[in-house]
Amino acid sequence: GQQVMQIPQYQHVQEGEDFTTYCNSSTTLSNIQWYKQRPGGHPVFLIQLVKSGEVKKQKRLTFQFGEAKKNSSLHITATQTTDVGTYFCAGSGGYQKVTFGTGTKLQVIP
Amino acid sequence: KAGVTQTPRYLIKTRGQQVTLSCSPISGHRSVSWYQQTPGQGLQFLFEYFSETQRNKGNFPGRFSGRQFSNSRSEMNVSTLELGDSALYLCASSLEARPADTQYFGPGTRLTVL
Known about the structure:
The complex is a heterodimer.
Chain A (H helix, E strand, L loop, with lengths): L3 E4 L2 E5 L4 E7 L5 E7 L6 E6 L5 E4 L2 E5 L5 E6 L8 E8 L6 E2 L3 E6 L1
Parallel strand pairs in A: 2-11
Antiparallel strand pairs in A: 1-3, 3-8, 4-5, 4-9, 6-7, 7-8, 9-10, 9-11
Chain B lengths: L4 E3 L2 E4 L5 E6 L6 E8 L3 E9 L2 E5 L6 E5 L5 E5 L8 E8 L9 E2 L3 E5 L1
Parallel strand pairs in B: 2-11
Antiparallel strand pairs in B: 1-3, 3-8, 4-5, 4-9, 5-6, 7-8, 9-10, 9-11
């Protein structure tokens, strides 16, 4: 079945440093979504990418969908303490159910 | 619009007991999915319901079951609880059951099995 892996599993960064998490699927995806879960909270939708090679930005966050639609990345520029949390990608291929990635837990050291 | 609500928020049970968790989706949403979240396993998909029908099921034993009512509210049941069932159970609602639909998560039910 479809598998979605994320790396790294954990990342500690100094406040102000950049951060990137990568999402890799075993199959071609029709779309990919990104969610953020704050400590003690629940996943909250951030963005969806649909097109091959698509790049979308939300303030300091840049999301990219690979050309082959099998990988994606989330890059945060100049991290802040408010960026702390676990970032999940979630992909689906056609009519398959959404599969969540393993998540990357981000810690920002002030 | 009110968000997804889950009850109860916290639950403590002992091994062998059974438990029922409830989820009320966002008004107008017809799809409800359930996930189990543990520190070591991330978000594990349990099942998805749409229009009172189970559309997809994850790799969980038959002790885990669910249902959806005509008003889209959903319940999940876990029978014969085991210590390993301790987890945060999240439900998520979406407008339809299309893979591209955004999922809106509830706050979760924290289940502790002693």
